[in-house]
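Run: sequence + pyridoxal-5'-phosphate -> complex structure.
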Amino acid sequence: MDRNPPQVPTELIASTLLKTYGLEGSLTELDSERDQNTRVVTADGTYLFKVCNADEDLEVIDLQIKALHHIAARDPELPVPRALPTLSGDDTGQLQDQDGTTYVVRLMSFVPGDTIRTHPELDTPALRRSSGAMLARLDLALRGFFHPAANQDHPWAMAQMPKLLKYTESISDPSARRNVEGILEKVRDEVLPRTARMRHQVVHQDAHTGNLVIAPSRPTEIAGIIDFGDMVYGPLIMDLAVATDLTGRPSLSPEGLFDVAVGYDSVLPLEEGEVDVLVDLILGRMAMTATIVAARNALWPLVPAYHDYEVQLWSQIETLLATAPDMRIGLRRATRFPMPIDGTLDSAKLRAERERVMGEKSPHFYKETLHVERGKGVWLYGSNGNKYLDFYNNVPTVGHGHPHVVNAVSRQLAALNTHTRYLYNNSVEYADRLTATLGDDLDVCLFVNSGSEANDVAWQISQVVSGNAGLLVMHNAYHGITQAGIDMTTAKGLDRATHVEEIPAPDDYRREMTTATMATSDTKAAIERLAVRGMTPAALIVDSAMCSSGIPDVPDDFLPAIAATVQAAGGLVIADEVQSGFGRLGAMWGHELLGMRPDIVTLGKPVGNGHPLGVVITSRAILDEFQAQVRLFSTFGGNPVSCAAGLAVLDVMEREGLVENSRAMGEYLQEQLWKLAETQPLIGDVRGRGLLGGLELVTDRTTKEPATAATLELLEVMRENGALVGKDGEHAHILKLRPPLVTTSSDIDIFIALLDRSLTTVSS
Ligand SMILES: Cc1ncc(COP(=O)(O)O)c(C=O)c1O
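>> structure
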């Protein structure tokens, strides 16, 4: 606390400068906390001459000089002082005072300009962003630097701030003292244990407004960072915490500090944990300042300015403490980190806001919409801190947030994202990898952005290539939201378009087993109904999983029979693999498993693991014929980021053996569901393949009355119990299970236990 700077007479400074550095010029004494600093202006330039504090450890002086050398080598343009040698080439010289004290002296280049502290009117968002960016650049330049003295005990070492708790008694205001002690205790007990596991390096630790230099001619840019006297080795985030300190910015609202963090993040990306501790560390730094100022006021009570500063600091701490929870969220928003899952968000308010901006009828599940902000593997995390076993979402096929997909997408996004009118490597690689998983004649790809678009394009191709206009679909099918998709969709109770005819889906739970002969005659009948209206089929589109038709057991010869009938009538066959593809049914492709040879395959949902990506795959001959007549281009379809996502998903599928896992876990799931059916009478039938499961729920096993209301209630109860499932089928009474393909047998055990408990609740 008590470190008076040396007070060497100016004549002695002048003679030392001449003798040791060969410099002669005008000298101006500058303010300093520990050393005696003199500005030296010569004919050739401006310098800073330092007479180091007599108590200063020589190793610490060496640390500062070596750090400046390191920075100069790493980022020569960075506007920080350069450490300059003596005439004999040494890093330091010596000076002997009249009273015999020997001081170490050193010389640096002078960074010209004023500081932000002396120009508060220039403290704009742009300048604050620039200060964050400059500090990040400095931290990058310091990366890899180490010196034994960087582990020194330093009164301003952020990571040692709890040591200051023994000085807080000097804070004269009881409420301010309580605040400061509360902050320091929280930092000691909660924050430092977290920062101990974060990125560490030697940090400047003093980039406050008094050490950030600006040139008034360029007021939105930082012109330099000075004062390397507080450097220590510690958590990297401490550097930003000091720079985002409110001290010295009396008129800035706390949100103004986000600019500094945003600027820093733009050069050296922050980690999520670092963002989360930043507000507590800013408070900690202010509590440190309040304590040190109070202790010094107690030592030298004659400096009234210090007391005004103290009072201002107390009130800034009070303000920041009151806004700290909002600040934490605001900081995440400013740096675009996702929202927290610690129960601090107001879901009801968010729901109301969503209705305001997205419409009151914007679809959502559950009476009280589920508010999730995070997902990992088979789990989704609610904003309330609850976790949910995700047996509903078939899109994150390799699991939520799979690191390989995350890395692939972020790396590609950082490198390039454009469109397929240019040539780039990964669209070709992706098309190659994808078509290699399909039959030999399915060897070309068109990239779009969703399952709906893929089906729309497949329909266009079918019409152009066949020259026909009729469309055949399964009963209660769903194929998308474009006009073509709506026409193909018979599951929504809309009037059927005049070019569309339905084929009944199999349902051997309620009706007799559908044979190939029956399927063929049903298809022929549909074709005849089209003929009555003067049309022949251009296409049949079929989802081999028949999800919306209630996930029926599809007999092996069913799809080959209907497909052959349509092809014989001149139509193309489109396998909509949006639900059934990519290993969902325990084989790579649903149509292959069920023995069908389509002309076109459409993909969506799982292929990008959540990144929007749709693909149309067909034969070279069909594509050539189509492209001869139609020029089709999608702005986003096949962009490098989507292809990176697609490639990464394929990598994971292969590396983790997910098709095989889907088959094996699917068998286990079916076994467990059948076992459950023995004790749960609501279960009328168990169906599905691979990791697609369907449970038909009935009020009575004899009458097979659909248990529509109970299914709805079951979804709610399951959510309360921590598992997410869906419903489907004409009467919305088929429980639909589609967990990620990384699901393990213990996930299934948890799921079965939750389902059992929920069925008991609904049945009682
Ligand atoms: C079988 C099938 N096809 C197409 C689609 C439409 O895909 P998207 O929602 O990506 O447009 C869906 C969506 O649920 C689907 O289940």
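>> summary
Residues 450-452, 455, 478-481, 543, 547, 576, 578-579, 604-605 surround pyridoxal-5'-phosphate (CB under 6 Å). The domain at 115-334 is CATH 3.90.1200.10 (Aminoglycoside 3'-phosphotransferase; Chain: A, domain 2).
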